[in-house]
Amino acid sequence: MSLSGQAGSALTLIAPGDRIAGNRTPRSGMEKIVESFNLDRPRLRPLELKWVQRGAEQVLFMRDPSGVAPRSVYVPAFVAILLGFCDGERDAAGIRGEFESRTGQSIGVGQVEEVLRQLDELLFLDSPRFRTARDGLIHDYRAGSSRPAALAGRVYPAEPAALLEALQGYGGDGWAEAQSDDAEIRGIVSPHIDYQRGGPIYAATWQLAREAVELADLVIIFGTDHCGGPGQVTLTRQSYATPLGVLPTALDVVDAVAEAIGPEEAFAEELHHRNEHSVELAAVWLHSLRRGDAPRLVPILCGSFHHFSTGQADPQTDERFAKTIAALQTATHGRKVLVVAAADLAHVGPAFGDSEPYQDADRRRLAEKDESLLRAICEGDAPGFFAQLRAERDSRRVCGLPPIYLTLRFLGTCHGEVVGYDQCPADPEGGSLVSIGGVLLK
Q: Which of 26, 181, 252, 393 registers the highest number of CB atoms within 10 A of its CB?
């Protein structure tokens, strides 16, 4: 078995000569006791896991969204089953026993240890090796002069003039004229999908908010943390760089929130800022409207609401959120504040785990449900917005739930208008969709 391959590319977990797939029994000749590997009760880290078709075989694609593990892998079915038992409760022998009990197939402890060793080398397990790599990356991140623009040259041009031309292009011929003189705008819901698909919604939203952006002393951006822990509120003291310069972070506000919720908790997942795209994609549009006089920024990543939307916990009574909002409101009192939710809406279709592709009738129903969500946002109704998604157990996978909810909590009484709405393709066949909307809140 081998996980060898080039960094940055997807790898095949099991070499062709050793492939074990389907219901074929692992060969005893493959057993290899790895004496140097001594990870007791291995636990799989939070990773992106997705079943994909490779040739005639379905395999599990594994990737680390946080960027600590630089490589991705495809694993066959039997390894995917083993991963399900890597929960920190079993050693290699226990994992072997669960595998044999569940599948009726035999496997050697040596084989299990070999798979675990390779997963550990890839930094997919919560182990000393992973923690050493993570701590090194955190040190380097904090030692940098700013948080680099991770998507420059990939999602948008890295050269300033080309970037501004591209952003203007998304607004079409009416870009210069389509601006609002409404300085009372206090909040924005902006997408965080790539500009190629969401560009027109981004452009319409930010251009209509131009005056509010120009008047803001401070901008708080709540962004989805796609690999964040349950209910996490993740801060950073680093400033965000864009091709247009650096947006300075308001350290006094960051420190006030960190003190309120506890520094260890506030910065526990800080490394996620390094590669997470949600805040960055909003920050670029913000900077394009404030090139000569950048406002201070408070970048906040918001972790998963899964335990709220599928369980009994209520974000309205969550102590961490209450402390975060209170600290933000106190620390920003008297300033001209603009708050941004960098947030997409639904993620539906086979690309996101649904069994069937979306047809025209499904698209219409999705639009109706999204319209109801947007109405709650425009009414400033944080509990009502959340209640709609909880009632359906967030079956539409609205990844913008956390940042939108916290934006509404911060603003309090407000009302808004929808600038635009779109359903963006998420697979080549067009059966999977990401829905997005732009909203201005006063």
A: 26
- Print the SS3 string covering 383-406: HHHHHHHHHCCCCCCCCCHHHHHH
The CATH number of the domain holding residue 127 is 3.90.930.60
User: Is the confidence at residue 131, as pLDDT, over 90?
Assistant: yes
Whether residues 82 and 176 fall in one domain: no
Please choose, from the candidates 123, 116, 115, the residue with its C-alpha nearest in 3D space to the C-alpha of residue 69: 123
Q: Identify the domain containing residue 29 by its residue range.
A: 10-134
Looking at this protein, which amino acid is placed at residue 405?
Answer: Y
Tally of structural domains, the chain: 2
Highest mean pLDDT, choosing among 1-5, 7-11, 107-111, 359-363? 359-363
What does the block give as tokens for 33? 């006791």
pTM listed for this prediction: 0.86
Helix-strand-coil percent breakdown of the chain, rounded to 5?
40, 20, 40
Site of tokens 């074990």 = 20
**Tokens encoding 114:** 């070999």
**pLDDT tens sequence across 176-222:** 454 555 669 999 999 999 999 999 999 999 999 999 999 999 999 99
* C-alpha closest to that of 367 among 435, 420, 419, 432: 435
Length of the chain: 442
Q: Annotate 25-51 with b (16+ C-beta within 10 A) or e (fewer).
A: ebeeebeeeeeeeebeebebbebeeee
Q: Which residues pair with 189 in a beta bridge?
A: 341, 439
Partners of 260 in the beta sheet?
none
* Rounded average pLDDT over 5-31: 34
C-alpha to C-alpha distance for 146 and 266, rounded to whole angstroms:
19
